[in-house]
Amino acid sequence: MRKSRGFEGELIIEIPKVATSHCEQLPLIAQLFIARMGYYPKAMHHYYQRPNGISQAILLYCSDGQGWVETGGNVVQVRAGEIFVLPMDVPHSYGADAKNPWSIYWMHLGGSHCDAAAAAVMERGGEPARAVQVGFSEERNALFTHIARTLLKGYSASNLLQANLALPHYLSSFIAPEHFGSQKQSVRDASPTEKAILYMQENLSNSLTLDNIARSVNLSGSFFSRKFKKDTGYAPIEYFNYLRIQKACQLLHFGAMRVNEVASAIGIDDPFYFSRLFKQQMGIPPAHYRKNKGIYGQ
Q1: CATH number of the domain at 11-183, please?
Q2: How many angstroms separate the CA atoms of 254 and 266, rounded?
Q3: 1 falls in which pLDDT band (50, 70, 90)?
Q4: In this structure, are residues 178 and 189 in contact, taking their beta carbons and an 8 Å threshold?
Q5: Domain 187-298 coded CATH 1.10.10.60
Q6: What is the pLDDT of residues 76-120, one digit of tens each?
Q7: What pTM did the predictor assign?
Q8: Sign of the C-alpha dihedral computed for residues 38, 44, 50 and 53 taken in this order
Q9: Alpha carbon distance 15, 38 (integer Å)
Q10: How crowded is the C-beta side of 265, counted as CA atoms within 13 Å?
Q11: How far is the C-alpha of 265 from the C-alpha of 48, rounded, in Å?
């Protein structure tokens, strides 16, 4: 017996068309908003098939048990602590495992950026056709509950704004789960990129090279550079320089050090190079930054 709903302890929130139309008229949330959402615990026999897809992205986060998603003839297993997000208009079917049915938090996302949101979550796992491991977080579940409770109060403009402005924060718990509650990792469990960033932060006063950083995570320079840029969007030294200028801003804003002393404190011996690097990133020279206490003042 297959079914799409009717699970003990379930939650389902159907957003009326008039409310989603209202979302499309509110500039702050028009590009990404919730069209439906819910929670199915131990969803035995749960099954959906949509031969033509739907005009919304579908988020499926498995918190217990397991299930599967089929797209384009490819069946993907989704296990506890994993997420799968279907883009809009993609034919699909999905369902709970027959022996160990999943518990899932789910959302249908509307707006012009719903596919961009789907891609942001799924690209963290590399191949789009694979479920992404995101683990478990009480903070994430609390965000879901907050959004649901807000929508259950009704669909006034303030409720729609409150719920949907929390949506990007909820999605970020999947994109960067290491920043959420129980997702905090030990250094031993961190990825090479995360370890490298920690190494950079601990060596802001030193002049690091690509080889220095790569050796700190036991990788070759070329492989590490490719992986780091894939994970962060930046080359390692570029990222390190951003961290150094961030530290320089703090020293200039709160301290009494001269500009050349600030440069030395972040491992740059040439004050002229420091000034060029600072202006390149911040748009103004360090002396101007200090005089005005930042670009926009205090």
Answers
A1: 2.60.120.280
A2: 15
A3: low
A4: no
A5: yes
A6: 999 999 999 999 999 999 999 999 999 999 999 999 999 999 999
A7: 0.71
A8: positive
A9: 11
A10: 17
A11: 59
